């Protein structure tokens, strides 16, 4: 059986037997991978700490019949400790890797890998509010999967905006003719923040008011939960205040 190498982000791990783990990873070139890391729960393991959630590694794998086997792992990005030391970063990172794990195999592209690595790096460095990093990641990850929300035109009829109603079930911002009765209006500052989060305009994102940040987070969470096959359970633990930890 052949061996191969790839760059990966560790999404989650599960115990297997007394000393092994099953590691789920998003790779740069091979999509999502599930592999057995033998002996990593022993204190003498050579690479156990390199295969923890949020870690970025260069791994060599042996192609097995059902699950591949990790043979080597070299750290490329050691983000776990800096993320785990801050509650806001930790919960946001969990939501990000859970969303990445929801991707179908066809959606697990190199662009998704690079987006996740960039998001985890930003969290570890505290470059921006943790919730803002998460919100930007979710919008971009959904867009890469073909579910970009309509923000400038009506998501239902295509009428040019700006519009002031966001309906997750209809695909984003909608005009008043398409908006269901009772749909909540979106403040212009919140609508502008959604655009900035999608575009990565961090100067505008960092300058946004806490109120518009919280409103945008709620809309993004609703949109992501609606379009993914299963909800992102980790979102319930993410702090509501997008200002949070820096």
Distance between the termini: 46 Å
Write down the secondary-structure element order.
EEEEEHHHHEEHHH
Structural class from helices and strands? alpha+beta
Average pLDDT rating:
89
Shape: elongated
Oligomer: single chain
- Compute the number of strand runs: 7
Outline:
This is DNA repair protein RecO. The chain is an alpha+beta fold and 246 residues long. The protein is 35% helix and 21% strand.
Description of the molecule:
- Helix content is 35%, strand content 21%.
- The model is unreliable at 241-246 (pLDDT under 50).
- The chain has a five-stranded mixed β-barrel. Strands 6-7 form a two-stranded antiparallel sheet.
- It is elongated, with a radius of gyration of 19 Å.
- It starts with a strand and ends in a 19-residue tail after the last helix.
- The longest helix has 18 residues, at 210-227.
- It has two domains: 3-78, Nucleic acid-binding proteins (OB fold (Dihydrolipoamide Acetyltransferase, E2P)), CATH 2.40.50.140; 82-237, Up-down Bundle (de novo design (two linked rop proteins)), CATH 1.20.1440.
- The chain has 246 residues and is an alpha+beta fold.
- It has seven helices and seven strands.
- The chain has helices spanning 80-84, 87-101, 110-125, 130-144, 188-199, 202-207, 210-227, and strands spanning 3-16, 20-27, 32-37, 56-62, 68-77, 165-167, 172-174.
- Residues 1-79 form the DNA replication/recombination mediator RecO N-terminal domain.
